[in-house]
């Protein structure tokens, strides 16, 4: 009897795993694989212990081979560049400082790479670092629930949720300390197909 129950349980787990993989493959097919994406973002960050959230908005440029440039316009102008090896911020007076250098802080480098994968919708990278719960809402919309696997990311994130269609439209990040960040993306466009001179300089 016990052997039969174990066998049935194993079969059920395999079936659930196969179904989840089918849904993940369906989401992967829906995601547009663009090398360059521009758009606008709005962010709301709720800090643990504080009643009022922090809100900001601006525009971004995502270049898959370079990184992401976040230009915050409201409430204060600033710029942040996320690349494979660093996070750098630039202030309105033109001064810049490196927030994270992967060579000096490898653990933060993993967080950096994860953030880039989140916003770029790179499912293969996310699958290496998270247990994924995929769901296809309808013919176009989908959601992903991400729970960090054991390791450094589990010390930073509790859970990450993504929602989108051909692109990632919303990201919700719940941090271990209780902070929750929501980022929504709008006015997405893939043209011009090349970085402008100003955009390219932002990555240097």
Nutshell version of this structure?
The protein has 204 residues and is an alpha+beta fold. Helix content is 28%, strand content 42%.
Question: Which key terms come to mind for this protein?
Answer:
single chain, alpha+beta, 28% helix, outer membrane lipoprotein receptor (LolB), chain A, 204 residues, 4 helices
Structural notes for this entry:
- This protein is of the alpha+beta class.
- It has a single domain (2-61, 107-193), classed as outer membrane lipoprotein receptor (LolB), chain A (Clam), CATH 2.50.20.
- The chain contains 4 helices and 11 strands; from the N terminus they run αββββββααβββββα.
- The protein has helices spanning 2-30, 106-120, 123-129, 197-202, and strands spanning 36-46, 54-63, 67-74, 78-82, 86-90, 96-101, 130-136, 142-148, 157-164, 168-175, 180-189.
- Strand 3 (67-74) and strand 4 form a beta hairpin.
- The longest helix has 29 residues, at 2-30.
Task: Describe the secondary structure blueprint for this structure.
Layout: H1 2-30, E1 36-46, E2 54-63, E3 67-74, E4 78-82, E5 86-90, E6 96-101, H2 106-120, H3 123-129, E7 130-136, E8 142-148, E9 157-164, E10 168-175, E11 180-189, H4 197-202
Antiparallel strand pairs: 1-2, 1-11, 2-3, 3-4, 4-5, 5-6, 7-8, 8-9, 9-10, 10-11
